[in-house]
Design brief:
Length: about 350
């Protein structure tokens, strides 16, 4: 990407995308999506994990105020919507923004899934069935499929007035576990790599992705590999690190297995675990954050001055990420400017 004169250093020479959760009113998020498009970002991904903000309504809003930027669900779960409804929903988004929509699917997580009555048995099988049938429906096929989870009999996207055509909606799998990474390599158009991991963590992820690619007779270049990266940018490095520290602390307590794989010392995980309960209160997270040193925040996020943040994101790219999907903490426009280019 081009030089960013406001930061005094070259912007990231790679693709870049924006990741939005529920931190901002949707109308504000619409302006961020439009600004990201103006500054050369290739995609905006809308989170859909917790029971807060589902992805497709914001994606439609972003699509209505943009012309080129791609729109991805990051990621919708494969359990709570029937695959026929998933296909119809993303076909509808494609009607709004043809050729710009990405269907991101994930296997969700417990205890949240269990609390709403979903038993996440055999997630690999379920993901394979959902991807297979959704892709066939989007390809304008009539689908009969009876598997472990998916049961469809003579189902098609039953257009009444719209043109009956295949929809160009690639399917990406959000994967963290080894077997899901392999499945993504085997059947998906892309894999969304997780956030709050160190760049070195990607080496193991790519190894498992490669196994799936080999089963399908594909090469690593055949699979897009965007990665969520927590990005905290401020001219004052201390402010940037402190903005990221609370999020890192919460993940240390909630996802210790991922943190351990990224090289976080077990002693720190134990210390944080003694302070946090499930679900953790804000006061507990603040107290535990005082235990988290700067070097751990720096290891798991792209935090610091604009120059430092760009350098850190470049490490994820060097370790196999094809497009950093930047999760902004602090001022969103500052982060977009840090990684963007003028292409209005």
């Amino acid at each position: 990407m081009a030089t960013d004169p406001s930061a005094g250093a070259p912007a990231l020479e790679a693709r870049a995308a924006l990741y939005l959760q529920d931190a901002h009113p949707i109308r504000d998020a619409m302006t961020y999506a439009a600004y990201a498009e103006q500054r050369g970002f290739e995609a905006v991904w809308q989170a859909e994990s917790r029971l807060v903000r589902e992805a497709t309504v914001p994606l439609a809003a972003y699509g209505a105020v943009t012309d080129r930027i791609r729109l991805g669900s990051g990621v919708s779960d494969c359990w709570s919507r029937n695959p026929a409804r998933i296909a119809a929903t993303f076909s509808t988004l494609d009607d709004l923004a043809p050729g710009r929509v990405i269907l991101g699917l994930g296997a969700w997580w417990d205890p949240l899934a269990a609390k709403v009555g979903i038993v996440r048995a055999h997630p690999l099988t379920v993901m394979r069935e959902v991807v297979t049938t959704v892709r066939a429906l989007l390809a304008n096929e009539t689908v009969t499929f009876h598997g472990e989870w998916v049961h469809l009999t003579g189902v098609e996207l039953d257009y009444v007035y719209q043109e009956r055509r295949p929809k160009d909606v690639p399917v990406y799998i959000g994967a963290t576990g080894d077997k899901m990474l392999e499945l993504a390599g085997e059947i998906a158009d892309g894999v969304v790599l997780n956030y709050l991991v160190s760049p070195d963590y990607n080496a193991r992820a790519l190894e498992h992705i490669g196994r799936g690619l080999e089963r399908a007779g594909r090469a690593m270049a055949d699979l897009d590999r965007p990665q969520l990266v927590v990005c905290s940018v401020h001219e004052d490095e201390r402010v940037a690190l402190d903005m990221a520290r609370l999020m890192v602390t919460q993940y240390l307590g909630q996802q210790p297995h991922i943190m351990r794989a990224s090289g976080v010392p077990q002693s720190l995980l134990d210390a944080v675990g003694e302070v946090l309960t499930w679900p953790a209160t804000h006061e507990q997270v603040e107290a535990a954050s005082r235990l988290v040193p700067d070097e751990v925040v720096q290891m798991l996020t792209a935090s610091g001055t604009p120059t430092q943040a760009r350098a850190r994101v470049a490490e994820y790219v060097a370790q196999g990420c094809t497009c950093p999907v930047l999760y902004p903490l602090g001022d969103v426009r500052t982060m977009i400017d840090t990684f963007g280019e003028d292409c209005a």
